[in-house]
Amino acid sequence: MTLSLDTVLLSAPDVAEARTFYRSALSPTVTDECAAADLDMHGAGRFAVAPAETLATNAGAGQATSGFRGYVLSYVLTQPTGVRTVREEAVRGGANTLKPAKKALFGSYSAVFRAPDGSVWKLAASTGEDTGPAATSPRPTETTLILGVRDPKTAKTFYEALGMRTDRDYGSKYVDFHPADGAAGSV
């Protein structure tokens, strides 16, 4: 049985604010569940937002940090216009641009922002040129959770033991796991 990452749980100091931000910036289908919010990323992954203090307590951790949290969320779109549109909407909703939208190495196009809840999001398109008309509400083709780990080889062994399948392995730099349909994946 392949382990799949069905839902990524994000912590937020203010769930209502996070719900409003994600609804406007990423346009997911948002379902309210008590104090949390469930975000369906158009069938390309599921995220949930819960109060930071609840997650820290449940994990047995101390206070939440305001620094880098050890992960980046990736939101893959079909073309550069989608990257620019989503980044602009995120900034209007209160996000801070960490990397402006621009062509990247090998012809791709990307931007990075920090959401008001502290999550870092990378928007990316595999091409640096638009290939068709712009979508009024760009939808991702894939969402990915990228974890910062000390030793990717050890992390690969751990996740494979849990049943995840390796898609690409770049040794001590990066390991990509093949996600199940509708799930998120990566390390």
Question: Which structural category do the helix and sheet elements fall into?
Answer: alpha+beta
Taking all residues together, what is the mean pLDDT?
81
SSE run: EHEEEHEHEEEEHEE
Q: Tell me, what is the CATH class? A: Alpha Beta
The rough form would be described as globular
Q: Report the C-alpha radius of gyration, rounded.
A: 16 Å
Could you name the ranges where pLDDT drops below 50 across 5 or more consecutive residues? 182-187
According to CATH, the fold-level topology is: 2,3-Dihydroxybiphenyl 1,2-Dioxygenase, domain 1
CATH homolog superfamily: 2,3-Dihydroxybiphenyl 1,2-Dioxygenase, domain 1
Strand order of the largest sheet: 6-7-8-5-9
Helix count equals: 4
Fraction of helical residues: 10-25%
CATH architecture: Roll
Number of domains: 1
Total strands: the figure is 11
**Separation of the first and last Cα atoms:** 19 Å
Beta-strand portion reads 25-35%
